[in-house]
Structure formats: structure tokens, C-alpha cells
Specification:
CATH architecture: Up-down Bundle
Helix content: 55-70%
Number of strands: 4
Strand order of the largest sheet: 1-2
CATH topology: Ferritin
Order of helices and strands: EEEHHEHHHHH
CATH superfamily: Ferritin, core subunit, four-helix bundle
């Protein structure tokens, strides 16, 4: 699938087509595969450099989430007003999250552009041309997964004595619960009102598995172990237990 408004696409490894990168300041080095990221190691406790890399990545990820929500508002102007309001509020939330991550990065001596960035989440989500697919992939799957990862990071930052970043991460989770929640709520509305559109969400999730396989990094991820499921916050976001 490709976006209907003609915004460009790029081909990345494995022949996968993603939406072209959003604009970034000239200080950033933008890469298109996870193997080209810094990957400073998974030692525990994390080194000062790997802590900065994590916050640098989180900063750009929050920017991507903002851009995805904003682009969805642009691409689907006829979406129900209540849903558009939720997406607009998400833009505000993600803006605050990005700023908080940048503040913590700078507090550790880091700076924008210190490490490469990748806009893969944007490229994957915004390649889909249906609202149901966007909500399924971004809000239900990607942000739903972030509930698990962020909960682990709350503990990681506390373990290394950085309680300020731990508190920031915990606050971000509270907002993400709502982002996942309204995605689940509207997917259910779509399922009831227009099963054909809901099938587009199911097709997108199936396609996402193929994309993930093609883009899988040769280098182990920052968290190679199994991340514990954050059942409590997932339940708050509307997942069944």
C-alpha cells in the first residue's frame, strides 16, 4: 500500500518500500537500517555513552510519533471529529515527551545529532493508506509495545541512580496508555461500523510481519532479552488479559 496523497516513497533493504523521511535538522545523520545505528552495547548497567544514545533515540522516536499523528490528521481530514481531537492531543503529548527526552539528554552532556537516527517507524506506519491500518500499526501495536519497553526503562533508570529520567519515563507511560486506548476504541468502532475497513487493519498487521522480517537487524537490539509484558497498563489501554 502507498499513501494516496502522493508523498514520496523510498526503497530500503529487502526491497521494502517505506514513506520518505520527514525533514530533519542538518545536525542529524539519518540512516535507513538498524545496523547503521550506533549500538553502543547492552552492558548492564549501561555506560554513560549508551545512556545518552538511548535518550537520543527516544527523543527522535517521540518526534516520529508526533509526526505520524500529525500526518494522519492531514491524510484523513474526514475522520470523526472526536478521533481528530484525540490525534491532536497526542501531537501535544508527543511534543512534551520529545522535549523531556532532550532535557534529560542534555543533562547528561549529550546533544542533538550526537548519534545517528532512523525514521523507520514513520516510514512503516505512514506507508499505509487507510485510517484503520494507521491506528492498528501505530497506536495498537507500536505504542502498545512501548508500554512494555518503557516500564522496563523506568526500572533501568532507577537502578543506575537516575531517578529524574525514571520519573520522566513513568510520566510518558501515563500518556501512552491513552494513545493506545483511543486506538483500540476506534478500531472497535471501525470493526462494528465498517468491517471492510477493519479488514485493512488486519491486512496491515499481517504485512507488518513481512516488513519486520525484511528489516530485521543483523546486530542484536538494545534489549535482546524478552521484555516483560506490562499487563496493568495494557489493561488500562483496553487490551484484554
Amino acid at each position: 500500500m502507498t499513501p494516496s496523497n502522493g508523498i514520496g516513497m523510498i526503497e530500503v533493504r529487502g526491497g521494502v518500500m517505506l514513506r520518505a523521511d520527514p525533514a530533519r535538522e542538518s545536525c542529524f545523520t539519518v540512516v535507513h537500517h538498524q545496523d547503521d545505528m550506533a549500538h553502543l552495547g547492552d552492558e548492564y548497567p549501561p555506560t554513560p555513552a549508551s545512556q545518552r544514545e538511548k535518550l537520543h533515540t527516544d527523543f527522535n522516536n517521540e518526534i516520529q510519533s508526533l509526526e505520524i499523528a500529525a500526518q494522519t490528521l492531514v491524510d484523513f481530514p474526514d475522520a470523526p471529529w472526536v478521533l481528530r481531537t484525540e490525534l491532536a492531543r497526542q501531537c501535544w503529548d508527543e511534543t512534551r515527551h520529545a522535549r523531556l527526552c532532550l532535557i534529560r539528554l542534555e543533562a547528561k552532556g549529550g546533544y542533538k545529532g550526537e548519534f545517528p537516527i532512523i525514521n523507520q517507524e514513520w516510514g512503516v506506519v505512514c506507508r499505509f493508506d487507510s485510517l484503520a491500518a494507521r491506528l492498528a500499526v501505530q497506536n495498537r501495536l507500536f505504542e502498545g509495545g512501548s508500554l512494555d519497553v518503557l516500564q522496563e526503562l523506568v526500572g533501568m533508570w532507577a537502578d543506575v541512580g537516575d531517578h529524574d529520567t525514571s520519573d520522566v519515563t513513568d510520566a510518558i507511560i501515563a500518556d501512552e496508555v491513552r494513545h493506545v486506548g483511543f486506538g483500540n476504541e476506534w478500531l472497535d468502532e471501525i470493526r462494528k461500523a465498517n468491517p471492510r475497513d477493519f479488514l485493512k487493519a488486519l491486512a496491515a498487521m499481517n504485512e507488518l510481519g513481512l516488513i519486520a522480517t525484511a528489516l530485521a537487524p543483523a546486530i542484536e537490539s538494545e534489549m535482546p532479552h524478552d521484555v516483560a509484558v506490562n499487563n496493568e497498563d495494557r489493561a488500562r489501554a483496553g487490551f484484554s488479559t
